[in-house]
Each structure stands twice: as C-alpha cells, then as structure tokens.
Amino acid sequence: MNPFLTADYCDGRVRIGSKTYAAGAYVVHLLNQYYRNDTAARLGVYKQHGWNAAEQIAAGYLKETDFISAGTEIGLILNTLPMLKPFDQFNVDGERNRISDLFSENNAKQIADFFHRRSIVESKSQIELDLDLLPPEYDKKFFKDANMLISDISDTLAFYNAVSDDMREAFIKLQNFVTHVDEAARFDEEHLLPIALDVFGAVPFPVTTEYIPIKKNAKSKACTLARRLYFDSYYSFIITDFFEGLHHGHYPRRCGICKKYFLMTSARRQQYCNGLSPYEVRGKRITCRKYAASINRKELAAADPVVDIYNRRCSAIRTEKGRKTITDEFAKAAQTLAKEHKLKAQQDAAYASRQYAVDMSRERLYAETDKRLK
Predict the structure, then answer these.
(1) Which of 133, 294, 326, 338 shows the greatest Cβ crowding within 10 Å of its Cβ?
(2) H or E segment at 228?
(3) Are strands 223-231 and 284-287 parallel, antiparallel or unpaired?
(4) Which pLDDT band, with edges at 50, 70 and 90, does 1 fall under?
(5) What pTM does this model have?
(6) What is the spatial distance between Cα 246 and Cα 196, in angstroms, rounded to a whole number?
(7) Quick one: how far is CA 217 from the chain centroid?
(8) Closest CA to 75 of 53, 97, 49
(9) What digits encode the pLDDT tens for the residues 295-308?
C-alpha cells in the first residue's frame, strides 16, 4: 500500500492534510485543474523506465539502470504533482526522500541478488524442498526482507505509472456525468445515482480503512468518529470522493457563464456558480449568478421545453432500466435515439413545435428503438 494518498471522511466532509472540504470537492478540483498549465499532461511523460522496471520485477529479473531511472522519473513527477489538489497538501519532500531511498543502487543489487538466489532454490526438486534440504543461497531473513522490499517497490511503481492515466480516465467520466446531470428528475442521491452508475459502472478497487477520532472543527473539544482511507491509486481516491459526495447530496456542475465546474450541495437546479463572472456590469465584477440574472437567463431547465422533454424521457428510461423492465442494450439505444430527436428539435423549429413531443413519447420512441435493434 502506497502511504502517499490518504483521506479522512466524516459527516459529508473530507480532510487531507490541513484542508477540510465538502466531500466531492476534489472532483471539482480535478475538473478545473486538469488542463491548467498542461499539468496532467506532463505527468504522462515520465513512466517509460517505471514500466520497464515493473515488468522486469514481475518477470523475475532487474536491470539496474532502468530501476534507478524509474526513481528519477518519479522525482520528476513529484515536481509537477503538487500543482494538483490534493497533492499540494502532502509531504512531498518526505515522499521524495522515500523514493530516493527506495530506488537506490543498493536496493537494485539486493533485488538482483534475491532473484539469483531464488532461481537456485526453485531449481531444486520438490523432494529436496520437502526435506528442507535448501541450498546455502537460501537465507530466510534475506528472502523475507527482499520480498517486503519488492512489494513496496511494486506498489509505488503501480501508483506512479498509473497516475496520469487515472486522472485522464476520471476526468473523462466525470465530464460525462456532468453532461447528463440535467436528465435527473431531481438532484438527489436517488435520482443521480443511476446516472453515476451508468457512467462509472461497477469497478471494484481495494481501499484500506481504519477508524480514527477527529474534531468536527477547530473549535470543537469533543471528537467524533471518522474513516481514514488509504488509496493505492489516484483513480480509487477520486471516485471514492465522488460517490462519498453524491451520498451526501453533493455533485459537480458546470457554470453556464464562466464554464468552470463547481460543487452543488443541494438539490436546487442551479446552473451558475457563485464565483466571479469574467464579465463586468457597470464596470464592476459580479458573480456568475448575478450576471446571469442581469441578462435575464433563467436557471430552470424547464425554461427550454426541448431540453425538458429530453431530460424527462432519459430519466424515465434510466428508471425502467433499473427496474429491469428494459435491457441495458435497449436503454442505451433509446437514449441515443432521444438525443438525436433533441438535436433535430434544437435545429428545426417546425419539428420542435409539431412532431418532437410525439417522437419522444414512450410508445413512439420505444417502437423506433425496437426497429433499430432488429
């Protein structure tokens, strides 16, 4: 287990280092920071030697130059990683020292020696091994220490080799979720969870948990129980943060004015954030919500009948899929057809006013979907 990524969750809040946010906040950080200064893209450059070292260790041999270069690559990743939350809260200097010690020349020689000794032991017959007639190359303590070292190195390589891909996969899926949020009949866990499961699927990942006492806030004298989670990948952390937030009614949205993502913590159909708008009104910067009001933009999706009909139909399709009255394949095809109708209605006013609602009715949409699948 890589000790670098841990988080404490309690009562809809997440604490990492000295910072405490609403659960789900790190989802919004990723969505807003992914492209900033090409930070995430830089992380994907430094993993060739890490891949090589991981493959070699799995195969039972090690090239010293690749091993030491893998440590150097991780050091370069650590130059960039703190630009992204939550890594700005971690003890990066301590992690850098750990990596330097872990990917040392001495450890490379120890692992190479272990593989050599292990091959000699494994070459012995089963009868000899059963009789404990082990060769002099076998040293119980040395083998135990080497296996622990290799396990630590393998976990570390797995974390850093995957961190850029983890960010990209999570970013794409989170964006996908945000684009479908308005399809929910209500913005609560019950109605948003089916959308989330459609996007993320059921992908199990290991998370080590311990329960710890923490103060609810800086002024509290009494402690409450929190879950401290240890993550072996960035993806498992960010998806946990997403679902922990969703469980407490927190979900990401994208502001229609500044285009930045923000965290909603209520079931309101709010389309604009409370951050400063990039535009001015009478020479003053105001929030995106106030700016939207100043130009008479409404925050209700129902203000657009085309979108409203589409959202209600997609919500109904998702409900039927959850109840198993239609198959996953049929639901996906029906949603695709519904989106086609919506796009046509947005481009053709005559179709929108005369035929769109008919085509989006359950009977007509399902009949057309059935024809497509046959």
Answers:
(1) 338
(2) strand 223-231
(3) unpaired
(4) very low
(5) 0.79
(6) 9
(7) 27
(8) 97
(9) 876 555 445 788 88
